[in-house]
Write a structure and sequence with these properties.
This protein is α+β, with helices and mostly antiparallel strands. It has 2 helices and 6 strands; from the N terminus they run ββββααββ. This is NADPH-dependent 7-cyano-7-deazaguanine reductase.
């Protein structure tokens, strides 16, 4: 019996349906002012760095539809606005059934948050779990044009 004659193992041709990029819910994102207008104390020093992380980022593989679990870290220097965390959670959860490669998901999160916040700078790092002995860590960076060196 050759490999071609061997019956397929059950389930190896299985594929789960995936959603397209239009399922990413950017409209749910909300912001609040970086500085409270009613606070008489001006904040001294350098811009505050904000770091947000979650182990619950899980888009799906565009080939199989199986979940890709990753740790997502968002690191940014706000200009005028901060992202509201509950809205961010809903936004990230909207990736749950979206078929997207690790690299594209990382850049998409960066693009959506830069558009929303207009930060001084932002870095998105996504560390996806091991799959088949391979670990993927993607990092995408943004620096506002008025913040770039020379």
């Amino acid at each position: 019996m050759t490999i071609q004659d061997k019956p397929q193992q059950r389930g190896f041709d299985r594929r789960y349906d995936v959603q397209g990029l239009d399922a990413i819910d950017v409209a749910v994102l909300d912001t609040f002012p970086h500085v409270r207008e009613d606070d008489p104390v001006r904040y001294p020093g350098e811009p505050m760095e904000i770091v947000i992380s979650t182990d619950e980022f899980s888009p799906v593989c565009p080939w199989s539809g199986l979940p890709d679990f990753g740790r997502l870290e968002i690191r940014y220097l706000p200009r005028d606005k901060c992202v509201e965390l509950k809205s961010l959670k809903y936004y990230l959860t909207s990736y749950r059934f979206v078929g997207i490669y690790h690299e594209h998901a990382t850049r998409r999160v960066l693009g959506d948050l830069v558009t929303l916040l207009d930060p001084l700078s932002m870095t998105i790092t996504a560390d996806y779990g091991m799959r088949g002995g391979i670990n993927t860590v993607c990092t995408a960076r943004y620096a506002a044009p008025d913040q770039k060196q020379g």
